[in-house]
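thoughts on these tokens:
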Amino acid sequence: MKTRPDLDALIRRHRQLDNLMVGTNRKRFLSDWNCDNPLLDQVLGPELASLSHDGLSRESYIYFDTEESLLNSICSFHHQFEALSLSHSNVVAGPGSSSFLAAFAIWLRRSGYTEAYYIPPLYHTFYFLLESLDINLTPVSTLHAYEAEFSMNLPPRNTVLLMCDPVWYAGKAIPAAQVAAIADWQRATKSLVFVDGSFQYMKWSYARNEATAMLDPELTFRLVCPAKTLAVPFYRFAYLLHPSSTHPDLVFLYESMVGGASASDLAFAHRALKVLTGDGNLERVMPESFKR
């Protein structure tokens, strides 16, 4: 008679191995998918074999979470423009924003949440993911946050609030006064807030700060997508700011779901952060109409 394997113990051991591999004394795990390939140049051919990726091994997976210089750039960006003091444990980065919507939805369900409140609208993919996981959604208003008669019916208890800022199809951000009211409610109830900020930092004034930065970083998940910000969706790069207490579970969940990234996406991620921080010389070539 076959017995059911102890899956919880198996997952714990894999997490222990993962922590060991990416710990302070990082080691290389040799296996059939991560090894020395003596036929690498022949497999890639002359076109791909000649490409340089700044010393990255072409025989290994790439995980953004192990790229310390990239994580440093993300933290520096938010410190420079929003005075946020973030550490690596507040950031998980990867290829594309949709995967972070999925990762957060799964994290929410695995954390025991079966309901959430939201400011309409949410991106349709987010609705689909949350509904698929049987998370009940309740709007706190019938209006968009930027409409003149907007008001919120926020519950007076600890819960989760979801919102999209800015609303992608309207090009309108949630007004700072409304974000301030959410921040006050968050402090009073210790509630989690998720901000789908996939289109943040796109202001034509070239401003590099967002109202949602006033929310408590240790109670807030904020999705940022530099690929959308810079209008270069050909490459995939996004990151999720999150409470440090959730980092181990969130990174393991995300990387278990998405796997590794591509070298070209990592190269773009480094370039995107240079442009966003002003080190990419973009202002020198921007039309004056974009600087108004």
Summary: The beta strands are 91-94, 115-118, 136-139, 160-164, 192-197, 220-224, 238-241. The chain has a mean pLDDT of 85. Residues 7-21 form the longest helix (15 residues).
